[in-house]
Amino acid sequence: MSEENVKTGGWRSNKWVRAAIPALLLHCSIGTVYCWSIFSQEIADYIGFSKGATEWAFSFAIFFLGMSAAFLGNFVEKDIHKASLIATICFSVGMALTGLFIFLGGPGKSLHGSSIILIGIYFSYGFIMGIGLGTGYLSPVKTLMLWFKDRKGLATGLAVAGFGAAKAIASPIMTSMLSGLSGTKEDGTSDGTGVYKMFWILAGVYFIMMFVGHLLLAKPAGWHEPQGKGEKPSIIQVLKTKPIGNYIGIWLMFYINITCGLALISQEKMIVKCVGLAASVGIISTFSAIFNAGGRLGFSAWADTMKDRNTIYKLIFILSIAFTALVMVTQAIKTAYNSETNETSMILVIIVIALIMVVNAGYGGGFSNVPTLLSDHYGMGSISAIHGITLSAWAFAGLTGNQIASFIVGHTGSEKVITYMENGVEHTAKVNPDGYQNVLWFTLALYIVALLLCLILVRPTDKAREAKEAKKAAKAARA
Fold this sequence. Notes:
The chain has 479 residues and is mainly α. The chain contains 17 helices and 4 strands. Helix content is 73%, strand content 4%. A hairpin with a 4-residue loop joins strand 1 and strand 2.
């Protein structure tokens, strides 16, 4: 079922069936990459490595997501249908192979604790799945903007919201599978086998979801894709239609937004414990995922009503600066919970939770508005390729955001042990309040830089300038 064979009339020309539903099927599948923290410790324990060693699999997945999108953008541009098939195969095969390497590295196996297993997981989850992530992320975006010409932001926001919502949907399912699929040792503890079984089952489930999305995905029948060197300008030529600082500004503010988002999100679980809500980590994680998805849809739909979509980024950065500064001034992470007296300041806790939700919403909104912002500046002709190159910012942010945050927490401040009750059982956790506050100093500085980039480098679009001039003329005529 190729896009050239799409006929007019009925479901074949329905924008929801041919664009929105396929996009959700693809993005709700690949978006589960953000569930890594749910099972990373289980993988580490099962194969005999530290959690820090296995964490690089996630970093590599995000890196190759961005780089595959950058290098395969032209391919996606030429054939979205084949690109979605490659995404389906790479993502599901990468997931199945990850399960295989975990199985081969299990306790009692000859490769337990072997670097071969770790490299295999890096290759499967990082490289192969990364290619599926990059092509799968790009494939539906242009199609959506072609079908929803008047509400491009809403359309792309809907798809990218699926990427964000995937964590909220899949996290409880994965948690249940990890325990439900595992056996029991003689001492009554879990044998951990559920982790590789989960990967194999989900590989099959996501293959079906993505393959259905691949079959349905198609461009509008009336869309004419420019062909040939003489008809279609190169990406360099397209970017040169605006001052080069314009694109540099977009790339940098996108990179900064992701870096800051990952820096906070990577420490979110421990920050929540630090402010006395250790027993509610799962609930807050679900709500932050909902805000992430809501930001993707809400900010992009809101941008449809604005003359210049860059205004959305100004709002995102201003909100992020304001809430980060509020937590810094009140030192809420450090003082919200007194572990010695077991007293909690609800006002400070609310401030910290508000920051987490605002950053998650802005993080998601930054993703969903990039393709539409680029299309406003550079047109639809090469949008997949330009969007792909811009996603390289995601690749580098994936290697820097959480790693820098971990470095700051590991090398500044001091740890303290807190105790908390969960399901009637007392637990302990090591937290570093000063370290988390220092991460916020880092993100605050970057958010300020991003806001300056928005104001100085990213120019208003022709549409925005024309609207501004028309408004001035109307005002002058009334005077």
